[in-house]
Each structure stands twice: as structure tokens, then as C-alpha cells.
Amino acid sequence: MQIRRSLAGTLAVALVALGVVAIPAPLLVSAVGPTAQLPTANPANFTPNVLDGEVDSIWQVGNTVIIGGTFTRIANATQNGGATFNRSRLAAFDATTGLVDTNYHPTLDGDVTTVIPSTDGTTIYIGGA
Fold it and tell me: What is the tally of helices (H) and strands (E) in the chain?
């Protein structure tokens, strides 16, 4: 029991030192359970546009796509109204409609280079500066 606690504490310290943070993901569980996958190389033309910076990591879990990078602003595609949103290096959108998730807007103070979903589809792990 003591070894397990010590290992968990060491792992937590290592993750913090490496810049890895766990953030609750927005409803990432599909009807048949979590299914994480990389999106296709040719995204649909209705997906949001990053207005500044770049996207460095993308994961899709169920019907939600999470993007991480150096951006601070994104916009819905023109056919989805073109609304602009401030997003601090992490954003989520619906894979079917392309609409930015307006309820998902964590504030980060550094660039995101890696987004990795948990196996249960309820949390994502991010890494970066």
C-alpha cells in the first residue's frame, strides 16, 4: 500500500514537472463507450478556423474533437455563422456539425503540444509549455 502511494505521488510530480495536466473533457463518451481516434487527414470544410497561431495536436473521442496548440482565437466556419471565440490554446468542437463547444473554454497560460484522451473518455491529458 505504501509503495503504491509513493509511486502515485512520484508519477504526479513527474507529470507536473513535464507540463502534463489533466483537464475534464466535454462529454467524450460515445453511446457504445469511449473511442479515441485521430481525425482524418482531410478534415471537413465546416470545421472551425484557427485565427491566430497553430494547431499542434488533435484527437477525436466520440463526437467531440479536441484541438491544442498556440492559438488564442477560433471561429466557426462561415456556413456555421462565423462566430469568433477566444480560446486559450485548447478548444473543442462537434465532429458532425463543426460547431465550437461554447461551454468548453479552459484557460491555459502556455502552448499545448500534446492532447491525449483517457481510456474512459472523461478526461484529456495535455502537455506543453
Answer: 1, 10
